[in-house]
Every structure is written in C-alpha cells, then in structure tokens.
Amino acid sequence: MDTETHERTADSPTRSAEHVTELAASARRAYALIEDVGRWPLLFAPCIWSQELERTGGIQRIRLWAVVGNGVRSWTSRRVLDPAGNRIDFAQETPAAPITEMSGHWRFQDASPGSPGRLELGHRWTTDGEPGAADRIAAALDSNSTVEIGALRAWAERPEEPDELILSFSDEELIAAPAAEVYDFLYRADLWPERLPHVAGLDLESNPAEPATAGAEVQTMDMETSAADGSTHTTQSVRLCFEGERIVYKQTTPPRGLLAHSGEWLFSSGPEGTLVTARHTVALDPAAVESVFGPGTTIAQALLRARDIIGANSRGTLRTARSHLEQGAAE
After folding, report:
1. Which residues form a coiled coil (predicted)?
2. The CATH fold of domain 2-157
3. Is the distance from CB of 181 to CB of 193 less than 8 angstroms?
4. Is 80 exceeded by the pLDDT of residue 2?
5. Tens digits of per-residue pLDDT, 149-159?
6. Among 37, 205, 250, 268, which is least packed, fewest CB within 10 Å?
7. What is the DSSP letter of 95?
8. Strand ranges in the chain using DSSP code E only, listed in sequence order
9. What's the whole-model pTM score?
C-alpha cells in the first residue's frame, strides 16, 4: 500500500496526510462499507463501538469509540455523503486536546483502461502547538489509517457479500432483581471464573470513565473459555461500561473461525424486575469454515453454529446471573 504524508512546514501545527491503495473492487461497494458506520467494529480493528446519531439528507452525524495510541477515545463527527461522487467528507465536531481541528475524506475510484481502482483516506489536522503533539497525532493516524484502509480493501475485494458473512442476534432474560445488581453481576467480570462454568480464567484491567471516553469506563480483559468438548481458547476484549445502562464490548482477538465479534449487554427496568438483552454481531472467516466447523460445512451453516455456541455462553451467563441474584434475594 502506498502512503503519502504532506506537511505544510516542518514546524507547522497543521498537517495533512493521504493513505492510498489500489482497489480491485467496485467503488460503490467500498463506499457502501464506509457509509454503514454501524458495522465498523467488524471491519476496523481500532473501532470498538460506532453509532449513527442522526441523518438528514446527505448529512450524517456519528459517534465513535476507538483505540488511539495506548488508550480508547470517543468523538463525534459530521459527515457529508456523496454517493454519486463516491466520496465521504468528515470533520470532528469537538476535537480533544491537543487537536484543535480534524477533518478528512474517503474517496473511491473505479478502475479505467490502463488505471487500477483507487481507495483514498485523507486527513487534515491542527494541534494547539504543544511540543511534539503534531508528530504524535501523525503517528497514531498513520497506524490506524494503514489498518483501516487495508481492512476496507480486504472486505471490498471479498468474493462474498458482507451480508453472507455477518450475523446479528440477541437473547433475553428477565431477572427479578434491581437493574443495579444485574449490571454489577455482568460488570464484575473479574468474578466470572468463580461464577460461570464456561470461564476458566480471566484477567481484567479497568480505567475510570472520563470525558475523552464519553463517560464510559474502559475495561480490557483476557478470558479463557472452556468449550463443551473440553478444549479451551483465549480471547482479548475491550469493554465500554456505562453504569446501569449498558456494557458494550468487542473481542479484539476473536476465536478461530471469526473475523470479528462485538456485542452489548442492555438493562431495562420493569415492574417484574430487570430485562437483560445480550446482543451479538459476528463476522465469519470464510477461509476457516471447514477447519473450524468441519469438512463440507457451508458459510450459512457455520454462521448458525457460531450463533449456537456464542448464544449458549451468553444464555448460560444470564441464567447464572438470575439464579445468583434471585437466590440471594430469597435468603
């Protein structure tokens, strides 16, 4: 992949950079993947969670949580969608210091005779003059942009349509306990090895909520999971904890057979207790289908099998939470 970085002057706080690669897929297909921000956690390794806040005509507002450098940061952006021109322009609404301005674009071009297709991600940013800030931002942008443009190219060039590889599903459990107690059971993942039979081990680190994370406490965890056949596998995850409301997570190292797995726990109080919803979205790795799920397994069958395995674990977690909390209330 070719990368070009352009600087106004060596000591200027304003910089610009373009990350460019050839694209052996239609510009429209690549454009659609970027327009659908809800799937970004599946497409892009740095992205933990994404939301479309509103859309009016060709103007869209989004919020992202992503790994930037050594931490997780959140921001909102205004995007101008131009499907006819295969271009999306964006600008952060309230950049966090030391950034004072951040804008850019996605641009997609179809191949033409003698010229390959083109995928371009551009950025322009200004910092507050803090020594070394422009260089730190440039390094973080270069790292994330290189990953993102490579991932987008890979998804756009796949022979399968995204909908063939992606599945979303959910399970629910009504628990006769206050929402705060139900939330705490799922929040205290450090206690899961004692409480959940499918969790063989877990290491957890937490960072308190702050404005830079839009009020989310950030947890990182390494979890060893026991399968029904006695085997174990280890996954790494980042969780965004919004106290009493939801816990959003993404497996940054998903198990074999999956390209990505993200989800959330949602809590809703009612007269009979707390309704907990476990939502999952998975992206299947087509190259690993037969080695993981067995010879002759189709992509559709593998998705259903993944749903059964992942759903069984989350349903088991919810049943254990219900038993733990309702039994405790009765004692």
Report:
1. none
2. Alpha-D-Glucose-1,6-Bisphosphate; Chain A, domain 4 (3.30.530)
3. no
4. no
5. 999 999 999 99
6. 205
7. P
8. 2-7, 14-23, 47-56, 59-68, 71-82, 87-92, 99-109, 117-127, 166-175, 199-207, 217-226, 232-242, 246-253, 258-270, 273-284
9. 0.91
